[in-house]
Amino acid sequence: MSFKEINDRFGLQFQRGSRVFCDGRLGTITGATHSHIRVRFDGHQNGAPCDPLEVRLVDTMQAGVPAMPESQVSVHGQ
After folding, report:
1. pTM for this one?
2. What does 44-70 look like in DSSP terms, one character per residue?
3. Spatial separation of the C-alpha atoms in residues 39 and 67, rounded to whole Å
4. From edge to edge, which strands make up the β-sheet containing 48-50?
5. CB-CB contact of 47 with 40 (8 Å)
6. Number of C-beta neighbours around residue 20 at 10 A
7. Rounded average pLDDT per 10-residue block, the chain, 78 residues
8. 4: helix, coil or strand?
């Protein structure tokens, strides 16, 4: 799939070079493979396939700091 097909299918706005947050790590989109977005995580040389629904654009987040989804936030003592 191309970026256009992935963006159209999932209603997203991915493009090569965008900064993203996925799997608890920051990275840069390097391409698309089949139905996945390839992300080169900071500190790594090669890109890894990521599910488009698990990738969040950092450029659109306040102050460039990704917020954790509520489902992943744990409260101490609970």
Report:
1. 0.71
2. -SS-EEE-GGG-EESTTSGGG-PPPPG
3. 19
4. 48-50, 36-41, 25-33, 19-22, 56-57
5. yes
6. 22
7. 87 92 94 93 95 87 50 47
8. helix
